[in-house]
Amino acid sequence: MAKRKSFWERYAYSQLSGNVKSQEAEQLFMLSEKELTALRKIRISTYLKVGFTGALGVLLLYTPYHLFQETLFPSRSVWIPIYENHIELEIEFIVYSILLVFLEIWYLTYVNVNAVSAIAKACGSPNEDDDNFEENLNSLINVGLQKKQKNLAKIGINPYEGLSKWSVTIFQLLIKLKATISGFLWKLLVTKLLGRYAFRMLVDLLGAPLYAAWNIIGSRKIMNEARVRVMAPPLIYKFTELLYDEFKDDDNFRNVIYATLQAISTSKRSFHYNHFLLATAILTKFDVEINEEPSYDEDFLEKVDELDPAVQKAVAKLLVFGIMIDGGLSRREKKSLLELKEDNVLPYSIKEVKVWSISYFEGRGLEDFFAR
Predict the structure, then answer these.
(1) Structural contact between residues 319 and 264, judged by C-beta atoms closer than 8 angstroms
(2) Could you give the C-alpha distances from 112 to 58, 105, 115, 140, 178, in angstroms and in order?
(3) Which neighbouring-strand residues pair with 78?
């Protein structure tokens, strides 16, 4: 029995499915000045909405709390069986806080879904001529709803390979708590700077810009993700064809495709739909059998210089493209590229890779990279 879709999934589907168009592949990853202008307007509008929401949430939470604390939010003595004692809790304030958080999340979801839909529409996506139309549509829905897609695990690729379960848990927990942690540190800093002149209401209200900033950062990430997911599919198919034409008869390269795809994934430490599209396209085109539990060599990149020169070239091309296809270069990825450069495996400079990555994100395509 198919799982019933949530309200937000249905809403996002209705918004995005109304954008369906038929376009040439190149039109999807090459952005015109008109499209870039539209994207800038969407970005500014979204920033204003989510930033104002974050600041307003802090004001609505702490203003009545400090002005009418005892009247609206009295402390109540609550018996805790495990603790075997009473503790003082502001139950009304806790309920009020949860209500405000729920309303803020609801509104932010609405804004972000509409931003993703507007970005897709501005770029002419989703494209009904794409064989992966439904998957790409669902991918954009998941971006708007901030849902992780773990498709990579289905083909045996794990971004967290090499990390213990505890390391992964702590890593994910820190990501989720970053706003709370930064809020605590902010209050600590304000208190330290103002010293005895600080009073609690001021300290709490000064957190408004911080939470506005976190909302903007969150929406920026979502909009960037939507943009690269819209432009990636046709580029992936084009790159796959070019790579296949050049290395289709090289069995040595075929034997290290899985290891290269795993290296791309672990460089990001996240499940990314574009990596899944790239992996499935490459594995299918080169007729590599899907293995849900492939062997993993964590020192693979250190051994690339031991491969045949032609295979080194193919690995470098695939690695660089996979790193660029999600629209950014992390420190970990730059380190991997520098190591390959030092081993004379990477035929491109780090500066070139940065320029290509920016060109891809800004809708100028990757013709320079393909030509190399």
Answers:
(1) yes
(2) 20, 10, 5, 11, 20
(3) 87
